[in-house]
Every structure is written in C-alpha cells, then in structure tokens.
Amino acid sequence: MKTRLLIVMLFGTLIANAQTTHDLNWFAGIGSSVDLKIDVGDTVRWTWTDPLNHTVTSDVGSNETFDSGTITGIGQTFSWTFVSPGMNDYFCFIHGAGSMSGTITVNPTLGIDDVALKNFKISPNPAQFKLQLQIPNGISNANVQVYDVLGKQVYTAKIFNIIEDSEIDVSNWNVGIYLVKISSDFGSITKRFIKD
Ligand SMILES: [Cu+2]
Question: How confident is the model at residue 114, as a pLDDT?
Fold first, then answer.
C-alpha cells in the first residue's frame, strides 16, 4: 500500500472567522417573508427588536430542527448554524406564521469532489479526549476548522498532502457543541461534534 502522508500545520486560534453570520430583526408583525439564502456552515442570528415574547421555531418539514424557546427583551438574540443543504421554514410559536415567519434556504457549497467531501467523518462523537478525523482520498490542500457555537474559531489546520486519519486533542476543550468544517478548493462540509 502506498505510503500516505499527512502534514498538518497549526496556525493558532486567532485567524479570522471564515463563517458568515447573517443578522435578522425579529419582532411582532415583521411578516411572513423573513427569508435568507445562505451557505452550509453559515449562522443566522435573530435579534429581538421589540419587548414582546417570541420564539424562533422550525416548522414541520424544516430540514433542520431548532427552537429558541421563549425569549423576551430588546436586543436578545438566538443563533443557529445550519450544517446541511435544504429548506428551513420557521416561525414564532407565540405570534404565529402570519405575523412572524420565514424560510432559510441553505445552499450546498459542495462541488465536483462532493462525494469525497461527504466521506469526511469524525469519531467518536461525543468525544472526551481525542477527536479522530477521517479525511477522504481525493481532497488536497484542505483546511480543517473547528468553531464553537458562538462562531468563534477554536482550531485550524492546513492539510497539504492527503491522507491519513488525523486526530485533534480536545481533552482541554470546554464541554459543548462544536462545528468541524473541512474545506477544499471545491467546497466544504461541516459536521457537528459534541465534546464530553
Ligand atoms: Cu413572536
């Protein structure tokens, strides 16, 4: 079997955030077309701009399932990072779809090697000490980035030459949800990861 080589170079944690965060205002009467088109891995942040109770709740049939619960107060926010392509209808459970609703359309960013990208796997999940990355053949010059739920990048590595399974030491990371993004010249794919 051909010797496979993986060279990982760490850039530290201060590199600019490659994800996009999209802002929406959220108030009673905003209407039923609070729509956005975004890319996989992007975050949508709803900001309460009136003093009433509201939720941001995915509707039946939405590709991803999310629910802010009841939040009250001008300036309060709810954020959700979308990790798979598809349509996400949502509404305010308190005021109803006629007063407050929309659709977040998540475009696939996968390109000609999307099959390879889709074979990107992480394990175990949840992980306590080491997170294994299974980086598929056919991807070169890939970047691996990990973000916390607030969209802050906590890890990045550039992979020049593929492939062998790699691992990230997560033993000192805070418990919680993270997003692991691998990107190449052809697209990107994001996986959700839970640190135990
Ligand atoms: Cu509402």
Answer: 59
